[in-house]
Design a protein that fits this description.
Blueprint (H helix, E strand, L loop, with lengths): L5 H14 L2 H36 L7 H7 L7 H4 L20
Amino acid sequence: MLGIGFPELVVILVLLLVLFKPEQLVDVVRVAGSLAERLRRAGQEIRDQVEGELHAATWERPRDVRDDASEHAPVKPSPLALAPPRLDDDTQPAPHRETDGG
């Protein structure tokens, strides 16, 4: 976990016994344990919040690498989009009639 072996653990325990009386040592260990638990919970809450925000910021489904390629691909218009609009018989303009001016 932290790479602490038996010799390091013995040194830490001796230092704790030198710094604190045995009666105080129980309280110190209890406070250290509760602090470690609070830090673990806070880290988990932050992790859950970040994951929730990331999930909310994504689309309904995760984007795939193939989606990125098709997103930037040029769009080919359909042949009908390039043709002029077709007019029905009712919308055809009336033929121009020349009058004799009178």
